[in-house]
Fold this protein.
Amino acid sequence: MALTLADITCEYAEGSPLSYRALESVSLSIEPGELVLLLGPTGSGKTTLLRAAAGLLPSSAGTVEVDGVRIGVRGAQRAAVGMLFQRPESQFFALSVEEDCAFGPRNLGRSDKDARADGRAALAQVGLDPSTFGPREPWTLSGGEARRAALAGVLAMRPRYLLLDEPTAGLDAVGRDSVAAVIERTRHTAGVLVVTHDPDLLIRRADRVLVMSEGRTAFSGDVPAFLAALPALTATGAAEAPEVLRTLMLAERRLGRAGATPTLDVDEAASSLARMCAEGGVPR
Ligand SMILES: Nc1ncnc2c1ncn2[C@@H]1O[C@H](COP(=O)(O)OP(=O)(O)OP(=O)(O)O)[C@@H](O)[C@H]1O
Ligand SMILES: [Mg+2]
């Protein structure tokens, strides 16, 4: 079982003077149980790739398969893929939060009672009390609440593949942690693909990382390989290093030599720096 994108190429406004190639032959595969991070600078094609994965890019070349079935061939396959959009307010349409969260499950054929229960459970899962937030009009929510309510709407459908476009943007520390916890729980049953400018939060839990740059794959591999590739990726501007690694890389530069162990663990990083200093490097 997997959500597989093969050789996806996308050109916006194709054939017009404004045409723009947003994706160039990008491939990606994610299995239930996996967490994959999608990184890259603004405009590099992350949202476009997510839309392709959700079957929302009719004009793209390449193939998207959900568990071996080409997306769009059977409408039901689309239900297996849930997407949280980058601007959650664009996702609401019902008059109440609870109604909005129940819409997806009801659309999948669940009874009204079950759909509502699924919606309420999903709200609780993202840390929004269903009794307080369920009756609210979606547009009265704060930015952070709206993001979590939109996530609940997607979770309520229990997709096998969950695509999240910057799910922690605009959240405070508690909100970020609660989204990270939801992702951690969801990945037991689903493949989760997360676009983020905040790799620090999720990188330790990720199975793989894909870095986009100008519509192409700048890097694809597991976390240790990503950490090893970071100096090259940061030099070209394709990726930003997580804080711990950035500190290590700066320290290496100031010590005038390489050799720190690439790690995301603060303790390990401190030991590595201490070792480097003890071996005779003198900070400039
Ligand atoms: N409908 C469209 N028509 C023309 N160009 C588009 C369209 N949608 C997106 N683009 C362009 O395609 C490129 C990739 O956009 P995309 O939204 O995928 O970037 P992104 O990596 O998600 O960026 P960000 O981190 O800012 O969200 C951008 O240069 C964008 O301006
Ligand atoms: Mg985007």
